[in-house]
Design brief:
- This protein is mainly alpha-helical and about 140 residues long.
- Helix content is about 85%, strand content about 0%.
């Protein structure tokens, strides 16, 4: 595999991890608010959320693989290195993902689509950051 391909896969996996962290973080925040100060209940909820977070990561990887590959190809083809491009592309992929998961127009009027757009935006920025750092490290060698 070429170094660009390896960097792209690493950046994509980091982006999937970032999106998972955003989605799991919102659920964790809701759990903290609803625990009412009960530490035992809060810690139990944290442990229980570990497996669903892993499942969310896998689903995120599956849903975003093809759209992310297309974005990476476009970025390489047209030499796009702007953080805004990757943030917007990530947001679009996030909106596409929730549209595939929940096939109802009501999802667009709920706060759920906003959460997925935010997670996608963070994922796109994470991809951009990882790619920039890896390219800079490779160039300095």
């Amino acid at each position: 595999m070429s170094s660009t391909c390896c960097r792209s896969i690493g950046g994509w996996l980091a982006g999937c991890g970032a999106a998972t962290a955003v989605l799991s973080g919102v659920v964790q925040t809701i759990l903290m608010i609803t625990s009412g100060g009960n530490i035992t209940r809060l810690l139990g909820g944290i442990v229980v959320l570990l497996l669903p977070s892993a499942v969310v990561f896998v689903i995120t990887c599956l849903l975003t693989a093809i759209p992310a590959a297309l974005v990476v190809w476009l970025a390489e083809e047209f030499q796009i290195r702007a953080a805004g491009f990757f943030a917007c592309a990530g947001a679009a992929i996030g909106a596409l993902s929730i549209s595939v998961l929940v096939r109802s127009p009501a999802v667009w009027t709920s706060g759920l689509v906003g959460l997925f757009i935010a997670a996608g935006c963070i994922a796109g920025l994470t991809y951009w950051f990882v790619m920039s750092e890896l390219a800079a490290r490779e160039d300095s060698m």
